[in-house]
Design a protein that fits this description.
The chain is of the alpha/beta class. The protein has twelve helices and 13 strands. It has helices at residues 11-23, 63-70, 85-90, 94-114, 149-168, 190-199, 219-232, 251-262, 288-291, 301-314, 316-323, 326-340; strands spanning 2-6, 28-33, 53-57, 75-78, 119-125, 171-177, 180-181, 204-207, 213-214, 217-218, 238-241, 249-250, 269-272. The protein has a seven-stranded parallel sheet with strand order 3-2-1-4-5-6-11, with helices on both faces. Strands 7-10 form a two-stranded parallel ribbon. The longest helix is centred in the N-terminal third of the chain and has 21 residues, at 94-114. The protein binds nicotinamide-adenine-dinucleotide (NAD) and thymidine-5'-diphosphate.
């Protein structure tokens, strides 16, 4: 089984590649990644010497390149994306449309033309359902109401992937997962940002009172679900993936858990306002379809957070170079004024 993975040097893609190579000794991986600010070859340092792993630096929007790469693979898993909501609202959203919509079209088009029997897994997000009123749990048929440029572009990608199934009979599957946390996550996202800041005894900028709810899932659980979908998912179907935390976990509680796990004081919490226009209040999904295939998360949130905190504590060698580079500039620009006020 030869699998083309895009965005494999990012957070989730790198976990997926590691897991696939580990679980299936017959599998080989071709990783296509542009290495944007979020792509980091260090995320895959432990597999780069494997004879079953090959890396190509390139763009999913490059039809000629993708056509060549897709020609001899059995499966395609498309992770490549611009993934941060705050950047989609504070910077120009054009990059999100380019990569998350046009890039997905190119991937689908190249697959249809050159490898029409390949299974194509489009990795999507639960954010396409928009903010969900309690006690709603949207299933895969629920109307999409994305509210950020990020989630709107991801919703368009879902539609394209499903349209290629309807019109060209491409073996397409769409997944929609809730918020992930775990090792190798770029520290613009809340969990690694708060863990690293707290380790450094720096303030953790909690947006808008911290009442918002996300359904946190360990990245390993997400990747196990994706492997299952490659094997057993039904063509043309959508699969929600999520932990269904019960009780649900508002951001303030998540923050307290992070600080508690690290043994840090709650005085590090710094409330900030106005950094996330259109801040979605609650995400939640009905996960009965993926659970009917036999999937369930392995660790609860506290257990997962303890493991994750341990990883960030031990892996300064991974995050220090990130924090000293372009990230610093982003951090100053995005948080500077709010953290000083
Ligand atoms: P990430 O930002 O960590 O990684 C994205 C990767 O894509 C990077 O390695 C980057 O270099 C690469 N990339 C970006 N543009 C590219 C292009 N044009 N061509 C080739 N490569 C390109 O993202 P992530 O958190 O690992 O998310 C991966 C996917 O999973 C995304 O599609 C995201 O929408 C989806 N998702 C993420 C979450 C989450 O909580 N992080 C939850 C559900 C779904
Ligand atoms: P984030 O990790 O950016 O993921 P997403 O926007 O895809 O859900 O944010 C998760 C939640 O954490 C969201 O409600 C916004 C909040 N948040 C903060 O409170 N402070 C921060 O510095 C960041 C980045 C996010």
């Amino acid at each position: 089984m030869r699998v083309l993975v895009t965005g494999g040097c990012g957070f989730i893609g790198s976990c997926f590649i590691r897991m696939l190579l580990d679980e299936d000794s017959e599998a080989s991986v071709l990783n296509l990644d542009l290495l944007t600010y979020a792509g980091n070859p260090a995320n895959l340092a432990d597999v780069e010497a494997s004879p079953r792993y090959e890396f190509v630096q390139g763009d999913i929007r490059d039809l000629e390149l993708v056509s060549r790469l897709v020609a001899d693979v059995d499966q395609v898993v498309n992770f490549a994306a611009e993934s941060h909501v705050d950047r989609s609202t504070s910077e120009r959203a054009g990059q999100f449309v380019d990569t998350n919509v046009y890039g997905v079209y190119v991937m689908l088009e190249a697959t249809r033309r050159h490898r029409p029997k390949a299974r194509f897994l489009q990795v999507g997000t639960d954010e396409v359902y928009g903010s969900v009123d309690w006690p709603g749990f949207p299933d895969e048929q629920t109307l999409l109401r994305p509210s950020s440029p990020y989630s709107a572009a991801k919703a368009a990608a879902d539609h394209l992937a499903l349209a290629f199934h309807e019109t060209h009979d491409l073996d397409t599957i769409v997944s929609r997962c809730t918020n992930n946390y775990g090792p190798y996550q770029y520290p613009e996202k809340v969990v690694p940002l708060f863990l690293i800041n707290a380790i450094e005894d720096e303030p953790v900028p909690l947006y808008d009172g911290g009442t918002q709810v996300r359904d946190w899932l360990r990245v390993e659980d997400h990747c196990r679900a994706l492997l299952l979908l490659l094997r057993s998912g039904e063509a043309g179907q959508i699969y929600n993936i999520g932990a269904n935390q019960d009780p649900e976990v508002p951001n303030l509680e998540l923050t307290r858990m992070i600080l508690d796990v690290l043994g840090k004081p709650e005085s590090l919490i710094q409330p900030v306002e106005g950094l996330r226009p259109g801040h979605d209040q609650r995400y939640a999904v009905d996960t009965s379809r993926i659970r009917a295939l036999g999937w369930q998360p392995e660790l609860d949130l506290r257990g997962g957070m303890e493991k994750t905190a341990g990883w960030y504590r031990e892996r300064r060698d991974w995050w220090e170079p990130i924090r000293s580079g372009a990230y610093r500039e982003y951090y100053e620009k995005h948080y500077g004024a709010a953290l000083k006020s």
